[in-house]
Amino acid sequence: MKLSACCWHCGRSLYVWHHGLCSVCLKMLKMPPRCPRCGIKIDPQMQKVIRHNHFCGKCPPLARHWQRMIVASDYAPPLSTLIHRFKFQKQYFLDRTLARILLLAVQNERRHRYIPLPDLLISVPLHHHRQWQRGYNQSANLGRYLSHWLNIPHAQNLIIRHQHRPAQRGLSAHQRRKNLRQAFTLNSTNFHKIFRPNLNVAIIDDVITTGATMAEICKLLHQHGITHIQVWALARA
Fold first, then answer.
1. Distance CA 115, CA 39 (A)
2. pLDDT-based confidence at residue 3 (cuts at 50, 70, 90)
3. N or C, which terminus of the chain has less Cβ within 10 Å?
4. Per-residue pLDDT reduced to its tens digit, 93-128
5. What distance in Å separates the CA atoms of residue 118 and residue 199, rounded to the nearest whole number?
């Protein structure tokens, strides 16, 4: 069989080019048991308890804003390397590979915890100035693939980041919350087109650190009657 491409991380030849990662690198992704509410790693011995009681009991306060969190892996190589290249080195072509990693995590959670698929996917927005600098919104790129594979509508312009603030990287948890305060608004025209009672949505991002960004978006959605919210992310830092 002819080899058609190379692994984006190690350079090994691939038989299935669109997977992007070889089986060796895929196995390097750290996927420890996590709390389905806050995404924090838990002791493997607690896994059976978590399945029955749903949450770890130690979720940080911000986690109350959503019902479920799905995280593909730790923010560690090779995933952290790929995410950094994707976000900061303009390697937008990694979007399919990273979206597939998140898809596998969603499918795994559905098998083990019977989490329902959402009715709508929402990508965390960038301010238009930052998106212009980067050339694309990395979360929206992930969302487009997931929307196609899962056959779920993807609302790219439902949430607008209307205030240009400093990047979250390097800020403390308190600074992150303050930095994001009232940074988002809802596109009311698009919202009225998609809203219905009991709408279940999933917010997509690349990396969860403190959860401050997700909490702000969730609070905005709560104000407009959306209370069934999942959070999907590639990694938890």
1. 14
2. very low
3. N
4. 999 999 999 999 999 989 888 889 999 999 999 988
5. 8
